C-alpha cells in the first residue's frame, strides 16, 4: 500500500487487478465475512498457505493491522510534522534552508514509496523535514497575511472531515472509474505545475499565471479537490487493508499516505488563501 498522492506511486492490497478492493474480496462486514474457508485466497496478497491450526491464510489475528494502529501511527507521523513546523516557525528558518528540507523530505518519501516494506524511521524522517519546510513557509506567509496558516489548517481539517463523512456515508464511492479519473486529473495537474515552474524559471514573473490572479484561484481549487479525492483513495486503502487482514506494519504505510495527502491539501489551501488575500 503506497501513498495515493500523485507525487508517489501506488500499490493496492489486491494484486490481481492492480488496485485495492476492485473486483476482489468484499470489504469488512460484507459477503466475505460469511464465506467459509479462506475468503481472501487468490485475491489477498497477504494470504498464506493454510497451516494445521490456522483456518484463514491471512496473518494471525494478533499481527493484523487494526484501525487503532492506523490512528496511532498517523498521529505519530502528523505529530512529527507539527513538531518540525513549530521548530522552523520559532527559529524563523530562512526559505532557502526550508527548500533544502523540502528536497530532503521528497527524497525520503520517494525512497519509502519504492520500498516493499515500510520503514518507520524513514517515514518519521520524511515527516520531520516536511514539517521544517511547512513551518518556514507558513511563517513567511503569516508575515504577509496574518492568520493565513491557521485558516489553512482549519480548511484542511474541514476537507478531511467532509471527505471522511462523505466516504463513510457512501456519498463518495471509490471505483475503478473514480481511480482512473483522479489519476488522470492528477497527472495533468502535476504536468501543468511543472510547465508553469519552467516558465517562471526561464521567463520570470508568474509563468503561465497558474499561481496568481483568477487562474491561480481556479488552479488552487482544483488542487484542493484533487487532494480530497486522494483522501478518499487513502480511506479505501485503509478499509481494504483491514478487510484483507494486512500485517500490522502496513499501518505505517497508511499513516504515510494520509500524511502526504494532508500536506498536499494544506499547501494548496495556504496558496489559495494567499492569492485571495493578496488581491
Architecture overview:
The protein is an all-alpha fold and 279 residues long. Helices cover 65% and strands 0% of the residues. The chain contains 7 helices and no strands. It has helices spanning 67-91, 95-114, 120-144, 148-168, 176-203, 213-244, 250-278. Helix 1 (67-91) packs across helix 3. It is globular.
**Uncertain parts:** 1-42, 48-57
SSE sequence, one letter per element: HHHHHHH
Give the biggest sheet: none
**Number of DSSP helical runs:** 7
- Estimate the helix proportion, in percent: 55-70%
Radius of gyration: 20 Å
Shape: globular
Topology:
Elements: H1 67-91, H2 95-114, H3 120-144, H4 148-168, H5 176-203, H6 213-244, H7 250-278
Quick description:
The protein is built from seven helices and no strands.
Keywords:
single chain, 65% helix, mainly alpha, 279 residues, globular, disordered N terminus, 7 helices
